[in-house]
């Protein structure tokens, strides 16, 4: 016999999500947030009343906090006062409200340490890093609006961001504890579209960054953290179109490059050569059945 919890309504069911540790379930409903505990019989752990309707919700990596917010484009509250709210699971009486002012809010996310929140302005003019520990603030002033232009290293020690400075692409690397600038250097791209950290064959240690150009040019360059170019893949007419995305293998020994020409190419860390190429059919065929 199965036991079911009390039903909760939610007007944004797509935001319902489990905490990373799998214990808590966050259920937003208009401007209310219900936290359900999978280990208790009553199931309802706590609830919060937010400043505005919840359109943005994200757990901290350590499952101890959760942030809510409403992007400026969908805000029903005072347009001049968008905010992000952070709630503590272990201390329900504690909360933090980050006022964003006239710059507005496009999105918000957590840093890997679960003690910093990153917010992006509505017009993508600035990314602000807010500390929940000492209330300090750091900024990335010229971020590119390209979807894959901001990424933490796998060990959480560094943050890399694509910036547009004086009409030229730059890569900025920040240390993720002090948020001090580690390195900033110009890129060879004409319109950088994304980046991906790699560990260079040494699992767990981020040392290499792959940066690729927009759809207009098949151009991917590998950089060391000091800004030195390690290798590049570009200008091959047979490749055509541009790079859609790239991802490192868990060991850091291979980089898989996906192109808009529907092909995957595998680059070896040892030689920086393309060692394999696979075509991806635009139509995925398969059988459906009862199994």
UniProtKB/TrEMBL annotation:
GO cellular component, one term: microtubule organizing center
Transmembrane segments: none
SUPFAM superfamilies: Tricorn protease domain 2 (SSF69322)
Name of the protein this chain belongs to: WD repeat-containing protein WRAP73-like
Organism field: Hirondellea gigas
């Amino acid at each position: 016999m199965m036991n079911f919890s009390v039903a909760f309504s939610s007007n944004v069911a797509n935001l319902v999500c489990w905490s990373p540790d799998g214990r808590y379930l966050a259920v937003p409903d208009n401007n209310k947030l219900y936290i359900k505990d999978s280990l208790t019989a009553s199931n309802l752990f706590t609830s919060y009343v937010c400043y505005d309707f919840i359109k943005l919700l994200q757990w901290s990596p350590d499952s101890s906090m959760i942030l809510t917010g409403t992007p400026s484009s969908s805000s029903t509250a005072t347009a001049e006062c968008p905010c992000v709210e952070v709630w503590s699971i272990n201390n329900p009486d504690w909360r933090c409200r980050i006022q964003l002012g006239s710059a507005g809010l496009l999105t918000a996310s957590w840093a890997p340490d679960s003690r910093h929140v990153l917010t992006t302005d509505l017009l993508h003019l600035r990314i602000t890093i807010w500390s929940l520990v000492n209330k300090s603030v750091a900024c990335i002033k010229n971020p590119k609006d390209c979807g894959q232009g901001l990424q933490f290293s796998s060990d959480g020690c560094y943050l890399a961001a694509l910036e547009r400075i004086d009409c030229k692409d730059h890569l900025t690397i920040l240390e993720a504890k002090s948020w001090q600038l580690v390195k900033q250097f110009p890129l060879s791209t004409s319109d950088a579209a994304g980046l991906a950290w790699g560990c260079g064959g040494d699992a767990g240690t981020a040392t290499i960054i792959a940066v690729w150009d927009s759809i207009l040019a098949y151009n991917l360059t590998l950089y060391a953290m000091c800004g030195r170019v390690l290798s590049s893949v570009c200008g091959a007419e047979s490749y055509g179109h541009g790079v859609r995305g790239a991802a490192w293998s868990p060991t850091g020994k291979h980089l898989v490059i996906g192109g808009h020409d529907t092909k995957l190419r595998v680059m070896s860390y040892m030689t920086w050569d393309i060692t394999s190429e696979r075509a991806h059919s635009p139509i995925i065929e398969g059988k459906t059945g009862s199994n």
